[in-house]
């Protein structure tokens, strides 16, 4: 944990020190400010995830379960990523049923799970993504699929672990905290749901299942 906090902080301080020297060309000055700003946002995201996780894992944390229209929540979350999808030239292929699917869950928790899944796909995929929702075996099943060339079969058992990163290193080219899927699994567990992953050739499938109302 300390390493994950210190890495972006050390980077920020390093760029600030170079800027303070005052002998940089204007282009480099702007570049270093931009990099320091990005690293600060990385740190902000990491601290936010740490804080959220500490709440979720506290002994008195409780999620109130209720009847939820998951179709509406899914559409709302997908729409909130419109700018990010456009920026990366990603077209989401969405397959939703015409009928509304009512599940037992918590709206805030469901939104967070969906945000983590879609954000994760956008960060790690350069091609289009696939999102589907359907009823299956008395469950509501959400499936996300994205191409992931360097994802290995042996990674499946670790993907929902705390601080898991796809390349299994401390380098973080995609600016991920490594906590998103772990938080998603914690929230799914508290909603009596299930989240799991499969890899088929170069496609990563993540499934979320909720109990139907």
From TrEMBL:
Domain Histidine kinase positions: 1-195
Name the UniProt record assigns to this protein: histidine kinase
Keyword Aminoacyl-tRNA synthetase: no
Membrane topology: Multi-pass membrane protein
Record's subcellular location: Cell membrane
Domain of life: Bacteria
Species this protein is from: Clostridium sporogenes
SMART domains (alphabetical): HATPase_c, HisKA
Matches recorded under PANTHER family: SENSOR HISTIDINE KINASE CPXA
Known EC number: 2.7.13.3
Pfam families: HATPase_c, HisKA
Annotated TM spans: none
Main location: membrane
Listed GO MF terms: ATP binding; phosphorelay sensor kinase activity
SUPFAM superfamilies assigned to the protein according to its UniProt record, in alphabetical order: ATPase domain of HSP90 chaperone/DNA topoisomerase II/histidine kinase, Homodimeric domain of signal transducing histidine kinase
UniProt keyword list: ATP-binding, Cell membrane, Kinase, Membrane, Nucleotide-binding, Phosphoprotein, Transferase, Transmembrane, Transmembrane helix, Two-component regulatory system
Cellular compartments per GO CC: plasma membrane
